Amino acid sequence: MKIVFINRFFFPDTSATSQMLSDLAIDLAKDHDVHVVTSRLKYDVADEPLPPRECVQGTHVHRVWTSSFGRRTIAGRTLDYFTFYLSATVCLLRLVKAGDLVVPMTDPPLISVPTAFAARLKRGHLVNWLQDIFPEVASELDFKRVARGVGDVLAWFRDRSLAMASCNVVLGDVMAAKVANRAVPEQRIRVIHNWSSGTEIRPLAPELNPLRREWGLDGKFVIGYSGNMGRAHDLDCLLSAATQLAHHRDIVFLLIGAGKQRPALETAVRANGLTNVIFKPYQPRDRLAESLTAPDVHVVSLKPALEGLVVPSKLYSSIAAGRPVIFLGADEGEVGRLLKAGPVFGVQVSPDDVVSLVRAILQLSDDRERSARLGLAGRRLFEQRFDLPIALAKWRDLIAQTAAQPARGES
């Protein structure tokens, strides 16, 4: 039995879905025949194509051709998606045999639809791995002007691909409820949280972190945001807090990553003359242990309208680093519920409540012992529930169970 993953990005790309898939595929390749159907592109670098074929630590990588307009325009991104649908489906029809396990992620959106067709035709097992729920995410973000009927049609096709699957893996309980509401039987929904590596990312004292010295952060209390600065994340509140705290010379805001919002944020920082906000690019994986422990506090953000549609995976690396978390989002969402359930590892603030955000930052800055206790509590929670080996064991269990069953549609 082969295991065939489908996602637009894979190692050496460092985007979130790529890192999750790379971790899982490379581990499974130790004792399974693992293949990845992906593109020749990197998430933020469309003009540096990767080789069409290679073997990465035992994983057979099939990089199909796509257009490469990148993320600059919606039209270009849509064409990149469409060409990936076509090329990936052709590759799957050649690659998949009866009884193989086919696992599409959700980049590009709706990749489960053509994958379900290929898996059904080739009599393979389909396991959808939902990193987000499209088109509902799009209706809240990019495509609000698209006619409602178009979204309904896309959702119908998506729902059919979920119903055809042997299992649908989701990232949390709130997302599981959303999928169940689409008439997918609960027994074919499995919660497997995203993760981070507790061996790669460990708590590190600020004075021992060379990156803090390199970036001029010694002696500062650093509020960090690390990851995608996309539309799903409400960062205006964070910028407003930086503006109000500009006179606190010992408090610095460190924003690491890229995304749709970053250019506007950089423009606003320059326009307001803020010297307490520092931008850095995505860091290579071998420096994540330093970049994620550079902040004293991590900010995790998600727009409340997206709860159950997206789960911010940056939470796991933040608590792996042993840092307290300020969550800008809904108190009844996935992260909000986790904060209330205990152990307490941070604070929740509504995305439009700048006053409470400023108060939380000042309280953590003034009480470093409390801040350290929250960070340690988060690390313990991470080790109990969100470390890489825990997720890998759940995936191996799911694969074994699925392989033992007939593929859906077989007699």
Protein described:
This protein is 40% helix and 17% strand. The longest helix has 22 residues. 47% of the residues are buried.
- Give the overall shape, derived from the CA principal axes: globular
Q: Report the end-to-end length measured between terminal Cα atoms.
A: 19 Å
Radius of gyration: 21 Å
Unreliable parts: none
Strand content: 15-25%
**Helix/strand/pairing category:** alpha/beta
**In which range does the helix fraction lie?**
40-55%
Please outline what is shown here:
The protein has helices at 16-28, 74-95, 112-122, 136-140, 148-163, 173-180, 210-214, 236-244, 262-271, 288-291, 314-320, 334-341, 354-366, 368-385, 388-403, and strands at 2-6, 33-39, 53-56, 59-64, 101-104, 125-129, 167-170, 189-191, 221-228, 251-258, 277-280, 297-301, 325-328, 346-349. The chain has 411 residues and is of the alpha/beta class. The longest helix has 22 residues, at 74-95.
Layout of SSEs?
Elements: E1 2-6, H1 16-28, E2 33-39, E3 53-56, E4 59-64, H2 74-95, E5 101-104, H3 112-122, E6 125-129, H4 136-140, H5 148-163, E7 167-170, H6 173-180, E8 189-191, H7 210-214, E9 221-228, H8 236-244, E10 251-258, H9 262-271, E11 277-280, H10 288-291, E12 297-301, H11 314-320, E13 325-328, H12 334-341, E14 346-349, H13 354-366, H14 368-385, H15 388-403
Parallel strand pairs: 1-2, 1-5, 2-4, 5-6, 6-7, 7-8, 9-10, 9-12, 10-11, 12-13, 13-14
Antiparallel strand pairs: 3-4
Helix pairs in contact: 1-15, 2-3, 3-5, 8-13, 11-14
